[in-house]
């Protein structure tokens, strides 16, 4: 049966988080389609992975017999994360926008799994694996909006996940999530509600589509 790697990075729990709400919908449908499948779950807010260190970085370019004990320990932690990515048949990532970029915890995960000569390079080890990114944001940064130039989440993740790791990338973008909480955005609540509804529907549809594809 198929394996799903599910990563959340929002600092907010449950329904308080737009990205978690959408990833939860995806996962629910996925598990309904794969009741005997495997889900590898990482909540990077509750249990952050280590930020990359000199030992963890340099160990990737040092022969195993020549690594220091510190390098070996740090690299073992990286390998665990890399192996989770490599064994996944599909990847689901919640990536809310914080200060125009991704959470630092998600950046730390990416820094750990990106290893030239293995997950990156001419033949990335997870190449072709479908990855769904739920890129929620409090406002709108879509083309034509005033803050279009501040969109650093999708651009960055496309460069890393698609162009570097070779994953088959798809975005779901719930936007205007601050509208119900910010009186200045009250007139945008209907657009937020439509965006949320569409995101939840897209998550369910994409989960079912991927499940059918992998079962074929």
UniProtKB/TrEMBL annotation:
Catalytic activity: N,N-dimethyl-1,4-phenylenediamine + anthranilate + 2 NAD(+) = 2-(4-dimethylaminophenyl)diazenylbenzoate + 2 NADH + 2 H(+); 2 a quinone + NADH + H(+) = 2 a 1,4-benzosemiquinone + NAD(+)
NAD recorded as keyword: yes
Catalytic EC class: oxidoreductase
Residue intervals of the Flavodoxin-like fold domain: 3-163
Chain residues that bind FMN: 10, 17-19, 136-139
Cofactor section: FMN
Gene3D superfamilies the UniProt entry points to: 3.40.50.360
Cofactor note: Binds 1 FMN per subunit.
Source organism, top-level taxon: Bacteria
UniProt keywords, alphabetically: Flavoprotein, FMN, NAD, Oxidoreductase
Oxidoreductase as UniProt keyword: yes
A Pfam family assignment: Flavodoxin_2
Homology family: Belongs to the azoreductase type 1 family.
Function: Quinone reductase that provides resistance to thiol-specific stress caused by electrophilic quinones. Also exhibits azoreductase activity. Catalyzes the reductive cleavage of the azo bond in aromatic azo compounds to the corresponding amines.
Name the UniProt record assigns to this protein: FMN dependent NADH:quinone oxidoreductase
Native species: Streptomyces mirabilis
